[in-house]
Each structure stands twice: as C-alpha cells, then as structure tokens.
Amino acid sequence: MIAQLVRFVLGPLARALYRPEVHGVENVPATGPVLLAANHRAALDTGVITFTTPRQVKFLGKAEYFVGKGLKGKALAGFLGGLGYVPVERGNAQAGLAALEAARKVLDAGGVFAIYPEGTRSLDGRLHRGHTGVAALALATGAKVVPVALTGTEKLQPGGAKIPRLAKISITFGKPLDFSRYEGQDYAPAIRRSVTDEVMYAILEISGQEYVDTYHKRPSEGVA
Q1: Tally of domains in the chain
Q2: With CB atoms 3.0 to 4.6 Å apart as the test, which of 21, 40, 147, 188 could cross-link to 170 if both were Cys?
Q3: Does the residue 2 lie in any domain?
Q4: Three-state secondary structure call for residue 98
C-alpha cells in the first residue's frame, strides 16, 4: 500500500514540483530482469530514479533504518520500503555477499534493481572507477544493464540543507547492455573487470563527466 502511495501519489507530485528532464526512458526494458547502473551525485539520486523509472525499482538500504521503534520508526521503514529499499546488514565481513544476494533475488524474480557502481557519492563531480559488483550481478542473472546518468541532483540539498531546493535536474537512460556473450564466465575476475569498465564507459558517454580510473575515496581517507 505504501509502495503504491509513493509510486502513484508522491511520484507525480515530485515530478510536477521539480520537473526533471527525463531522456531515454524507452530504453528500460518493459519486462525481465534489469540492472540500472547509475552515477551517484547526491543522496536524493535514489528518489529521482524511483520517480522517473516506469517500473518499480529496488535498492539496497541499511538494515538499521528498518528496525526503529514506535510510530516514527515504523513510518520510516514503511516509507523506505515504498521507495524500494531492501534492508541489508552492513559493517561485517559478510556484508558484501549479503548485498549481492539481496540484489540477485530481485533480478532472479524478473525485477529491476539499481546500483551505483562507484560505491559512494562523487564528491568532486567526476565519474570514478566502478566496483565489479555490477558485473557479478549482470553475469550471474543475465539481466540487461541500463546505464543511467544523473545531472544536477547535487544541487537539491547543497550544504546539507534539510529541505530539498528547486534545481534543474535531469536523468538519462542509455541503451541496454547485453553481456550474454560471457555466459558461464561470471567468476572470472578479468571478465568482471571488462564488463564493469564497459558499463562505466556507457555511463560516461551519457553523463559527460570527467572520468578518473581510481576508486573514489571519502574525505576521511585523504580526499577533499
């Protein structure tokens, strides 16, 4: 019920208020497993993807967001579930495997899952080297990979503003990528790296960002 509220009530309201430019939405396959691979500019990227994709989209979410007590905790859990978040435990040795397994279940069921291959938000506006989880999922499930480019979303909450501001934002869905030619080779590190790099190049082509062939580091790791 909450998912329907988010999708069919909040979605149209958000689109009417912020008027995002949406390009290439016809590139999202109408049926079958689809992996949306997006650049990551802001915390609100997930909402933009949710409200502009014609099919329901699932994302990974921290499990602790779903266990809050009282009315407020239940409301938050319900809202995040409505946005498409799938709760996953983090901060332990099995976290990465749990995340991939949660995503794989969605794709195996023929659903749509969104992932940020960079692994974190870009703090310098550039597109950074992708982690190979996107390739592992695509190769293991046979899902089509649709590259997604978000532009301007970093202006929605500048300086950590609590209320999103009006800003010109756009989302572009690129042509779907098919990696069925690598069937049976999903455990080969070289293949995973090659597929990931192909996905990142596709994102680069539609985003127009500068590309950096290194993993993005958070400020605490020495990057301003």
Answers
A1: 1
A2: 21
A3: no
A4: helix
